[in-house]
UniProtKB/TrEMBL annotation:
Signal peptide: none annotated. Transmembrane segments: none annotated. Keywords: Isomerase. It comes from Actinotignum timonense. Residues 39-293 form the Xylose isomerase-like TIM barrel domain. Residues 315-338 are annotated as: Disordered. Gene3D superfamilies: Divalent-metal-dependent TIM barrel enzymes (3.20.20.150). This is Sugar phosphate isomerase/epimerase family protein.
Length: 338
């Protein structure tokens, strides 16, 4: 059980795989890792998501991995979840390797105290995507429907492994994948039919696309009941159906198309108790992420006065004068760290 102040809100470690001087981040001096973690800490974060496009946790030798773990502990930075990017477990060329990678990450994630491993079915950027101002504006990988049964089987396999540690698998919504629409995502997670598999309702991945989209409210209505981890970001979006023109750009959470004050409250009423990961593309991604984290905490603070997502009886509504949390929130925060 969390309070607004102890709810895990992680920074995506978006520093990249190279240091500022061009070194491989995996073999860079530990002082480089510390500097990047301190930048996050100084902006008020108490949690990170060390996504696999940053320090490659699976590939680190034991000594380097232990140094990473100890550094996070010393800085009091918890790791509620770890995300995997473009490593689809049904990639035709690399699926077996990617599956083994996620298995290894589950083991190392457990050592770091992670509760969730977030995966998707995205694959490597195409040359056109690499050249585009925003990669999502160029066509990318489209999942093969014939591989859907294999994808379900492999997610179930990962869920069994994660379940041995009491961990969950979250499936990130992303265009043209098996969880690329709200209906497809719900159908997919239902077909997997495992208690520790849910959805990452990253609707920001969809509203940024220059193509027709259902309303964000329609999409959230469908997927929020299955959410167990939440990559959260926002975009402005404009569209002209008569000419077929679209425009989108990344903005802070409170400034974009999605009304996250309403959507977060909706998620809490439905029983969402997972961690958030703030994500932003372009500009000062870390500074905007910190702004987004503060915004989420303010929304949580007001929402938890009247909404109890942890209610055992399913009744999420409480009196506005009742406490929203208490000492148990601190206990939960301690349990979710190391």
């Amino acid at each position: 059980m969390y309070t607004a102040d102890t709810w895990p809100i992680a920074a995506k470690m978006n520093f990249g795989s190279r240091t500022e001087t061009g070194e491989d981040i995996a073999t860079a001096p530990l002082s480089v890792w510390e500097d990047q973690l301190l930048q996050v800490k100084e902006l008020g974060f108490s949690a990170i998501d060390p996504m696999d496009d940053w320090v490659p946790l699976v590939d680190l030798p034991e000594e380097r991995f232990a140094s990473f773990r100890d550094m996070c502990r010393d800085l009091d930075l918890s790791i509620p979840a770890i995300s995997v990017g473009r490593r689809s477990v049904v990639d035709v060329r690399n699926g077996d390797t990617n599956l083994a990678f996620v298995h290894d990450l589950i083991d190392r994630g457990h050592e770091l105290g992670a509760q969730v491993i977030n995966i998707g079915f995205m694959e490597a950027l195409t040359p056109a995507q690499e050249k585009a101002l925003w990669f999502w504006l160029a066509p990318g990988h489209v999942c093969d429907p014939q591989l859907r049964p294999l994808a379900i089987e492999r997610v179930r396999e990962l869920a069994r492994h994660a379940g041995q540690y009491g961990m969950q698998i979250s499936l990130e919504m992303y265009e043209d994948t098996y969880v690329g629409t709200h209906d497809g995502a719900v159908s997919f997670v239902r077909d997997i039919d495992r208690d520790n598999v849910g959805l990452n309702p990253d609707i920001g991945n969809l509203i940024r696309l220059h193509r027709p989209m259902p309303s964000y409210q329609e999409m959230f209505d469908a997927v929020l009941p299955y959410a167990n981890y939440w990559h959260i970001k926002n975009y402005i979006r404009d569209e002209d159906p008569e000419t077929g023109t679209y425009m989108s750009a990344p903005v802070p959470l409170e400034s974009g198309l999605i009304n996250y004050r309403a959507v977060i409250r909706q998620g809490l009423r439905g029983g969402f108790t997972g961690a958030f990961m703030v994500e932003h593309y372009g500009s000062d991604w870390l500074g905007v992420g910190a702004t987004n984290a503060r915004y989420i905490r303010q929304v949580l603070r007001s929402a938890l006065r009247t909404i109890d997502p942890f209610a055992a009886d399913g009744d999420s509504v409480r009196s506005a004068t009742s406490p929203a949390g208490g000492s148990s929130g601190g206990e939960a925060a301690a349990a979710s760290s190391y």
